[in-house]
Amino acid sequence: MDTYPITARSLGLYFKVDGNNLERAYKDHLSGFRNWEQASHAEDWVLHPKNIGKRLGIDETMLHKDLMTFLTNKEGHGKRHTLIAAVKGTKASDIINVLMQIPQEQRELVEEVTMDFSDSMFAVVTEAFPNAAIVIDCFHIVKRCIEAVDELRLKAKREAQKAQNKEKAMFKKKLEQLVKSRKYYRKKHPKKYKGKKRGRKPQRLNKRFRPTMLANGETVIELLTRSKYLLSVSGEKWTDRQKTRAKILFRMFPKIKEAYTLICSLRSVFSNKSIDRGTAKVQLHEWYQKVSACTLREVKAARDAIKYKEEEVLNYFINRSTNAHAESLNSKLKGFRAQLRGVQDLPFFMFRASIIFG
Predict the structure, then answer these.
(1) Which DSSP letter does residue 27 get?
(2) Element (H, E) at 328
(3) What is the four-CA torsion angle of 246, 247, 253, 259, rounded to 10 degrees?
(4) Which homologous superfamily does the CATH classification assign to the domain defined by 32-137+322-357?
(5) Spatial CA neighbour of 57 closest among 45, 66, 70
(6) If residue 156 lies in a helix (H) or strand (E), which one and from where to where?
(7) Which residues form the Transposase IS204/IS1001/IS1096/IS1165 DDE domain (predicted)?
């Protein structure tokens, strides 16, 4: 339990002992939690200055009903000596106050910090690590653009829902008119025949509304709903069914096709492993011009976000650094939290995270 993020209950099942008693004994006697020097403030922050290195990452994750900010060392690879600091909340001043407890000589040795587009994280890194180059994670860059495409998809879905509701109302009105006309006809033309009725079969008055089906057997709303994943990945990863769906989607919604094409061109810049920072800057400015030529406000907003932090975005092409190590630690902490069925005792949870990853 000092090495791996496992619970006392799962260990108790393996050794055929009471997991609750084992957890209580580990917390009170075996672990050293009662003598931990950071127990008094562990609910708000935890700090391990000895784990600081030259290449760091900062990210936030939901933990115990609130966000917590984690500063990690990339050289730890998600294992021991990875966790440097954990601070409750995302307020820049609170995080800076904790990180300033690290000696200045150590903070000035940091060369690179990876992060997302968060302005609060940007302020923290600028203040606490003055010599560090800030790198915006390329996955968050593409994700920001994918959100723009998803906004167009949701907008088209809302319009399709309105059109379907209007079509459904017209269908209902048509049935009501049919009922009235049939009553009037029966009143003026009473039945005078016996046996089987001749002529075409009358339309049912309780007929259900059926929306228009597309070539792949989906409605327009279903098409837009099920296209979320395929718009977030490269076309090379599509299955045959997704290719058919994308073909219909792009034919019906050319704006979504235009936005997706622009995102793919940006993704190709970051996936090219042979270009340097200067070449990437030229290609990025060419992408700016392509976006300027379109009329999609959502994509232009994503372009402006990238353009605002262009230098930090281009720093990715120096060492190809990503924030994957910080995301890896976040996923491990979430998995540990899931085993516990939620965090009931945050100080003890942070103690265990400190001895496993600190």
Answers:
(1) I
(2) helix 324-339
(3) 60
(4) Ribonuclease H-like superfamily/Ribonuclease H (3.30.420.10)
(5) 70
(6) helix 138-188
(7) 56-352
DSSP secondary structure of 34-48:
GG-TTTTTTTTEEE-
Burial of 185 (0-12, 13-18, 19+ CB in 10 A): exposed
Query: What secondary structure letter does DSSP report for 75?
Result: G
Scanning the structure block, which residue is given the tokens 């005078």? 192
Q: Using one digit for the tens of pLDDT, what is the confidence trace for 94-140?
A: 999 999 999 999 999 999 999 999 999 999 999 999 999 999 999 99
Q: What angle do CA 145, 116, 349 make, to 5 degrees?
A: 130
Task: Give the type of residue at 227.
Answer: S
Distance CA 66, CA 29 (A): 29
- Residue 154 confidence class, pLDDT cut points 50, 70, 90: very high
Count of residues making up the chain: 358
* Residue showing tokens 């998600």: 78
Residue 51 CA to residue 324 CA, distance in Å, equals 18
What's the order of all strands across the beta sheet hosting 55-63? 45-47, 83-88, 66-73, 55-63, 112-115, 133-136
Residues 34, 35, 36, 38: is their CA dihedral positive or negative? positive
The C-alpha atoms of residue 152 and residue 69 are separated, in whole angstroms, by 31
pLDDT digits (tens, 9 = 90+) for 184-240: 777 777 766 555 555 555 666 667 788 889 999 999 999 999 999 999 999 999 999
DSSP secondary structure letters along 300-326: HHHHHHHHHTHHHHHTHHHH---SHHH
User: Residue 126: CB partners within 8 Å, gap ≥ 6?
Assistant: 134
Q: How far is CA 224 from CA 118, 156, 209, 219, 261, in A?
A: 30, 8, 20, 9, 17
**Side chain identity at residue 265, one-letter code:** S
* Non-local CB neighbours of 299 within 8 Å, separated by 6+ positions: 145, 148, 149, 259, 262, 263, 291
Domain borders along the chain are: 32-137+322-357, 140-187+209-316
